[in-house]
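Re: [ENG-882] Designed sequences occasionally contain unexpected residues at chain ends

Forwarding the minimal case from QA. Structure tokens:
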């Protein structure tokens, strides 16, 4: 979808696709009717962005929900760029909307899942984690980062980083165990290994996890909870 606006941001034209999606009549732009098709909760954000960017003539990018002709809202990536004449005079603005509904809803669902994981972790004192096998990314609860002393960063939220923390004497056993876990039908998987903190000290960790498969039976995620059993392990060795 696309539209044109005057230098002050007043929308004066929308393409056929915008009208087809929204079901808006030809005279819908009169009296500011353009924003009527935005989700009420997104209108303030859109207006604020306009106030901030129009004076500086900067490109704007927003995630906004537009109402379709069926009354349902879908997420769109809205990008608005300035249009200049040959004399560098601002002629107006060109806006485009790209449908990102599925991606946005997946992100929202994932964020809610992370929030639920975090609440569960706080309630149980467990170190929750989630391994997305498609992206290779590892997510850990806040308690994990506090225990190991490392900050959450793109380079630390990976399987490779997690393996680098495991004691060399335990590494092969853990890797072989993970490989076995991916092909097993067991509902709960357990292991125990030593994990290095940022200060070089090793903790003994008890890990419980389960594998999540997609519709075709392929493993796509592994989620679990770790517990610091360093004191218990020390007592066993006495």
């Amino acid at each position: 979808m696309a539209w044109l606006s005057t230098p002050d941001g007043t929308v004066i034209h929308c393409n056929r696709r915008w009208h087809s999606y929204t079901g808006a009549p030809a005279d819908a732009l009169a009296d500011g009717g353009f924003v009527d098709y935005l989700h009420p909760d997104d209108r303030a954000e859109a207006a604020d962005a306009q106030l901030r960017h129009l004076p500086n003539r900067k490109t704007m990018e927003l995630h906004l929900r537009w109402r379709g002709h069926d009354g349902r809202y879908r997420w769109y990536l809205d990008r608005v760029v300035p249009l200049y004449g040959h004399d560098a005079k601002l002629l107006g603005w060109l806006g485009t909307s790209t449908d990102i509904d599925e991606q946005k809803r997946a992100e929202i669902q994932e964020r809610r899942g992370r929030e639920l994981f975090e609440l569960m972790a706080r309630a149980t004192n467990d170190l929750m984690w989630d391994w997305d096998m498609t992206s290779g990314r590892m997510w850990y609860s806040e308690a994990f980062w506090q225990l190991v002393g490392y900050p959450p960063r793109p380079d630390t939220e990976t399987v490779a980083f997690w393996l680098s923390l495991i004691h060399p004497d335990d590494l092969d056993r853990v890797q072989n165990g993970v490989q076995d876990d991916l092909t097993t039908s067991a509902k709960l998987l357990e292991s125990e290994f030593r994990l290095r903190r940022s200060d070089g000290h090793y903790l003994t960790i008890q890990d419980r996890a389960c594998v999540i498969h997609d519709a075709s039976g392929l493993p796509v995620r592994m989620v679990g909870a770790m517990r610091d059993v360093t004191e218990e392990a020390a007592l066993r060795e006495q």
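QA comment: On inspection the terminal residues look reasonable. The two ends are 71 Å apart (CA to CA). Proposing we downgrade this to a documentation issue.
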